[in-house]
Amino acid sequence: MRPVNLIPPEERRGEHAPIRTGPVAYLVIGALALALGAVTLLVLTNNKISDREAKVAELNQRQTIVNTQADELAPFAQFSTVEEQRTATIRSLADSRFDWERVMRELARVIPSDVWLTGLTGTVSSEVAIDGGANVDTRSSVQGPALELSGCAKDHKGVAEFLSALQDIDGVTRVGLSDSQRPGADAGSSSSSSTTTSSSSGGTASDCRNRDFISQFQIVAAFDEVPTPAIPEAAPSSATTPPPSTSTGSTATATPTSGATNTGL
């Protein structure tokens, strides 16, 4: 036969008895779950904060080590900067350097025997001005290095020979005759018989024309192919030689036109 439990369900005991539950149990379980989640989140947050603090400490330690190494290597960086600056300075000086010694040596070789100089000035730029130098008006038209020469020759033919001789100097690209005058023969010029001539700087230069046939000149020899320095570093040399009491003769091959001559570069 099949057994039948005659005890009402609400009074039964054991595993087959129905479980009596209410909303309080669910609230307790929910609160416990929330507490567990909060504790877990708090633990994870603390772990992340600890990890971040450990990384910050490690980075600070590395930064301290790197700063120490940088301080130790600082003198080498400063030396490198000084080396670069000195190299740039030397390169600038080399670019702006002009071999005036060679030019003077070649000028001494090509100058004719019947030509003497009363003023000689060499400048690397037209912006360079030298007090008391042989300032020639046409120098301003030459931006690069140039020679300014003033002096006298036996006659106009001697001046022409000197112009041709200056072309033989290595590096000279053009030669310009700013002025050539001879007393007596250059009639109609009141300044020809004067004893002094005015220079472009406002001063006066002694007249070397002590004979009627002697011609006084002003010449500019340009070195156009030489690069012009941005800032002139030093003023070149200038020299003045006294004119002889008498001129020495030489054979001339060309005669300029009579009178004052003004030829721009």
Q: How would you portray this structure in words?
A:
This protein has 265 residues and is α+β, with helices and mostly antiparallel strands. The protein has 3 helices and 7 strands; from the N terminus they run ααββαβββββ. It has helices at residues 23-96, 100-110, 156-166; strands at 115-123, 146-153, 174-181, 196-198, 204-206, 215-222, 238-239. The strands form 2 sheets. It has a 5-stranded antiparallel beta sheet. A two-stranded antiparallel sheet has the order 4-5. The protein is rod-shaped. The N and C termini lie far apart (145 Å). 24% of the residues are buried. Residues 186-205 and 231-265 have low confidence and may be disordered.
Note the main attributes of this structure.
single chain, 265 residues, alpha+beta, five-stranded antiparallel sheet
Write a concise synopsis of the structure shown.
The protein is an alpha+beta fold and 265 residues long. Helices cover 36% and strands 15% of the residues. The chain has helices at residues 23-96, 100-110, 156-166; strands at residues 115-123, 146-153, 174-181, 196-198, 204-206, 215-222, 238-239.
Decide which structural class fits the backbone. Answer: alpha+beta
Output the radius of gyration.
Answer: 50 Å
| Tally of individual helices | 3
Strand order of the largest sheet: 3-6-2-1-7
Q: Averaged pLDDT, please?
A: 74
SSE pattern: HHEEHEEEEE
